[in-house]
Amino acid sequence: MVLNMDSSRTRITKAVIPAAGLGTRFLPATKATPKEMLPVVDKPAIQYVVEEAVSAGLTDVLMITGRNKRPLEDHFDRNHELEEALRKKGDEARLAKVAESNDLANIHYVRQGDPRGLGHAVLCAAEHVGDQPFAVLLGDDLIDPRDPLLARMVRAQADHGGSVIALMEVDPEQIHLYGCAAVETTADSDVVRVTNLVEKPATADAPSNYAVIGRYVLDPAVFDVLRTTEPGRGNEIQLTDALQRLATDEALDSPVYGVVFKGRRYDTGDRGDYLRAIVRLACEREDLGADMRAWLRKYVAEEMAD
Ligand code: G1P
Description:
The protein is of the alpha/beta class. 34% of the residues lie in helices and 22% in strands. It is built from eleven helices and 13 strands. The chain has helices spanning 45-55, 70-75, 80-89, 92-99, 118-123, 126-129, 149-160, 221-227, 239-248, 271-284, 289-305; strands at 14-18, 39-40, 43-44, 60-65, 106-111, 134-137, 141-143, 163-169, 179-185, 191-199, 210-218, 256-260, 265-267. Strands 5-4-1-6-11-8-12-10-9 form a nine-stranded mixed sheet. A hairpin with a 5-residue loop joins β9 (179-185) and β10 (191-199). α3 runs antiparallel to α4 (92-99), α8 packs across α9 (239-248) and α10 crosses α11. The chain is globular, with a radius of gyration of 20 Å. Residues 1-8 have low confidence and may be disordered. It binds 1-O-phosphono-alpha-D-glucopyranose (G1P). 1-O-phosphono-alpha-D-glucopyranose binds next to β11 and α9.
């Protein structure tokens, strides 16, 4: 009998998507609608994220939700009435669009109760995840499917063990918006060893310009650390603080690595970036792109003439 002696090489199947935020930056749109349901072109932001998890081989998705999150559950469930109406009309194209999200993945939901921060949201997944490495995807970051980051992180975790975070070099002026990592190189050119982490430092205090972006492949050891992580920045239990302990406390024997991402990432977390993401993605769409680009050129020309 062959035993799998190395649990870090267990195939990763579970993805956790925190979706309990209040979305206050998008009020009033998010008064009764979760921000994860806001459309990016014509698809809710959350569907891109689930599709990304699935394309990296993660078919078990746990969403950490809160109040007002019913629309999320409805979106990933069947809508018989709508399907029937479209079928009667013979509108196969729209029927396919409605059905797209029904069977994407096995989706589970757990409620966070008190919104006590990202670290707390991840801790809510402990029971569902159990004792195996798992991914965390934050909905405010959209990663272009042509630049598959998560699959690379899953492979890096299998090769190096421990946890793997996604890092991107940003303008030092922007680092206060992100977790920031101090790193050392490894033999893999796109993988670094994380030696320290700070949540949203001022530019002057930042150990580097490597920003943590919203993709993580985590060792389940993070749960025990989160259980004893005190509230940090913003009085919230920060995932970054738990990962900082894993990265720096050798006794925990659970190192943290980073995959340095150089691909296309769209931030949908603030209004300006959200609008820019929509314009960029619409311009690249086969059905909308030509019209959109022609209109944009005209619009910009008029703006410059003013
Ligand atoms: C969270 C994390 C932060 C990370 C960011 C990526 O912050 O706490 O470390 O850099 O996501 O998007 P948030 O943007 O949710 O405040």
